[in-house]
Write a structure and sequence with these properties.
The structure is a single chain. By secondary structure, the chain is α/β, with parallel strands linked by helices. It has a six-stranded mixed sheet with strand order 1-4-3-2-5-6, sandwiched between helices. Strand 3 and strand 4 form a beta hairpin. Helix 2 crosses helix 7. The longest helix has 19 residues. The mean pLDDT is 95. Bound molecules: manganese (II) ion. The site of manganese (II) ion (MN) has 3 residues, from strand 2. Manganese (II) ion binds next to strand 2.
């Protein structure tokens, strides 16, 4: 694995292909209160590109162009959160999404464990240390620890492999159509979150 860390934006001329894994780190789970601090991206080649978002946000045209590119597939684990964060802080409506958490819930019916750690263990046979997840990401670029950078990179470098395996299972279980319908609903689910409807409104 190699990690590239950038301030404010992706560098000019970086070609990440047509399928990228994306994750974000924030100051917490409350969208308005807890700002976006880091966006991690990988093309699935073992390299992670980390863009630090400063408290005083600077323009990030390269990052925005990638996120807004409908021709690029974006892989997330729990897209519901990252899509809302990116929409709120960068004003981008993300399209062409694959969410490994939704896929996992639709096909890995033999378990209740749908965390990224569980998927990395099952499909990549690696044990992730998730402890840095709840660490302080609001730091200067040179203050982020090696452990934090490694944690942030780990959240994107396995997603292509996981997607490949889950997609096979979705086809095998004949749930690819309902998976796509769930993704079609994602925008609405994010909007419900943003309007304060956190619960499952279909529930009795
Ligand atoms: Mn993460």
């Amino acid at each position: 694995m190699s990690i590239h860390l950038y301030k404010h934006d992706l560098p000019d001329g970086l070609d990440l292909g047509t399928s990228v894994a994306i994750d974000t780190e924030t100051m917490g789970l409350n969208l308005r209160r807890d700002r976006l601090c880091l966006v991690q991206i990988s093309s699935g080649d073992g390299q992670a590109h980390l863009v630090q978002i400063a408290a005083e946000m600077q323009p990030c045209p390269n990052l925005e162009a990638l996120l807004a590119d409908k021709g690029v597939e974006k892989l997330f684990h729990f897209a519901r959160f990252d899509v809302a964060v990116i929409n709120f802080y960068l004003g981008i409506e993300i399209e062409n999404i694959f969410c490994t958490k939704i896929a996992s819930k639709l096909v890995r019916t033999y378990t209740d464990a749908h965390g990224l750690k569980n998927l990395v263990q099952e499909f990549c046979n690696k044990s992730l240390d998730k402890r840095q997840g709840s660490s302080d990401w609001n730091k200067d670029i040179n203050e982020l620890s090696d452990k934090q950078l490694e944690y942030a990179a780990n959240d994107v470098i396995y997603l292509h492999k996981i997607k490949l395996e889950l997609e096979k299972m979705l086809i095998r279980e004949k749930r690819i159509d309902i998976f796509n319908e769930c993704l079609n609903f994602l925008d609405t689910r994010v909007e419900l979150d943003q309007k304060g409807f956190k619960e499952d409104i279909f529930e009795h």
